[in-house]
TrEMBL record:
Family annotation (InterPro entries): Tetraspanin/Peripherin, Tetraspanin_animals, Tetraspanin_EC2_sf
Gene3D superfamilies cross-referenced by the UniProt entry: Tetraspanin
First-listed, main subcellular location of the protein, grouped into a coarse class: membrane
Descriptive protein name: Tetraspanin
SUPFAM superfamilies for this protein: Tetraspanin (SSF48652)
Keywords annotated in UniProt: Membrane, Transmembrane, Transmembrane helix
Membrane topology: Multi-pass membrane protein
Subcellular localization(s) per the UniProt record: Membrane
Amino acid sequence: MKSFSHHPKGTMALLKLFLMAFSFVFWAAGLIMLTIGIWAKISLGTYLMLSTNQYPPNPFILLAAGITIILWGFLGCFSAATEHRCLLRTYGGFQLAVLAAGLTAGLSSLFYRENIAEGFQNGLREAINSYTKDEEKAEALDFIQRNLNCCGIESYRDWFSSPWSVEQQGPNGSVPISCCRTQKGCLHAPLPSDARGIYHNGCFSKVHDFVSYNMFYIASAALGLAIMQCSFSLFSILFIHVTMARNYLMFFLVLLSHKIEQCYSVF
């Protein structure tokens, strides 16, 4: 029976090593989630501010999930190293919660991506009409026009009927300085009839494409991490069951061999 007594110890050591490796991978996934959440908050925050649709709080979901995974990842290593069953069960339940959060962030990004057009069209129109009243939206609109090299909703002419442009009393209409290709000589200068020196293309299509493109990658990353966690969890369960089955098979073979030896010793 000495040969069998070695197997459970080896099996448990292998299981502990596997669970600790899984905890490390899980911790790395949390770091990736945190990075994606920060990137999404920084890159999309200003754009989503101008949408009239209620956008999903995916950056915050990813940030919260990433921070929590990083903190709880150490719990997974500790529970695997100490073989603490209660902590292992808690860690398993936590993995399911993170899996649900990843799926929620990914799927909501995909659904939101299909319904962003109307929200941004209305949001840009509201921002133009309230340009002198809502400073936060005005700053967001200026940021978008400067960074995407655009002006207005469909074209720079959208500004001409705005309350802000009427107040400027320009002969050919007025646009904000954020519509200018270069700021030098643009501020308070009369707008040329051919609109030289300003961006002609509207912001709607560019904002739509930018947000849709980034939402797709956020959704892909969140769903990819969730699928990876699910696959790793299923693999770990399968590994445990296969190892236990082999353990029982070895026990049965050793026991059978021992019984056969006893029978031969009688004869």
